[in-house]
């Protein structure tokens, strides 16, 4: 199976929020022109430094109108805080507008404040994810949901089964995703472990594949913090501020130890940064990449300027990803 190349944005920027949204749309256009296979957005109901996207399907509808071939996806939509039938309707509308280019990744989200804002029980987040996921899958399959005789409109064209993803943070979660017949999304890094991220996640990926018994070939989406530049110094000028802000937040929550060097914190973020050759060499040691069907690159927690972000996308598409075996699909024109 040929690896697909993706780009994930948390919709952050150095200006106001409206500008961050516009800049993120530009990145979708650039990624589309460069041949990226999938553009992903992350949903955040609470603000994160420099932005955060609360309504991903509105954003993706606009991106659908500005792009031609790139697929449009979420990593993730916070499923317990969505009505699964309404969510399925949003997915169906964007899928119709985009010509069948939509995929959806779901998960349980992050913290209790989001759940309180929506009147949901944070302690039941895993149960709610499972319940809502089952309804969402039935709705996207064109089955009756909610009440006899009701199906979503517009109906999804074709089989949506292999376009559904679930984000997980444990081997148990990976097995649940496999049992649900969902593709697997792995986060950019694991937190709360001293062992390297790829060592931990390789076990999760193995557990997923061992549990898989679905009707289609399973997919594993590997999200990684990747920022190529002329060298590490130039990369750090663009990503250091965002990394330090994120690090301070993680330290305050007890997720990261205090008093570590920037290099150590970048290791904990499992970051790939610097010259493209350095990044390729690091990826050749990546334990999960051999099992991945999708490489999903992101700049978060770095918040580069728009021009630097565009240049990084260009380097990923022309130097990093091809060296890892990716080939852009022929233009639809």
UniProtKB/TrEMBL annotation:
Pfam families registered for this protein in UniProt: Bac_luciferase (PF00296)
GO molecular function term, any single one: oxidoreductase activity, acting on paired donors, with incorporation or reduction of molecular oxygen
SUPFAM superfamilies in alphabetical order: Bacterial luciferase-like (SSF51679)
Record Gene3D superfamilies: Luciferase-like domain (3.20.20.30)
Annotated Luciferase-like domain residues: 7-247
Organism: Actinoplanes regularis
GO terms under cellular component: cytosol
Keywords on record: Monooxygenase, Oxidoreductase
The name this protein goes by in its record: Flavin-dependent oxidoreductase, luciferase family (Includes alkanesulfonate monooxygenase SsuD and methylene tetrahydromethanopterin reductase)
InterPro entries linked: Bact_Lucif_Oxidored, Luciferase-like_dom, Luciferase-like_sf
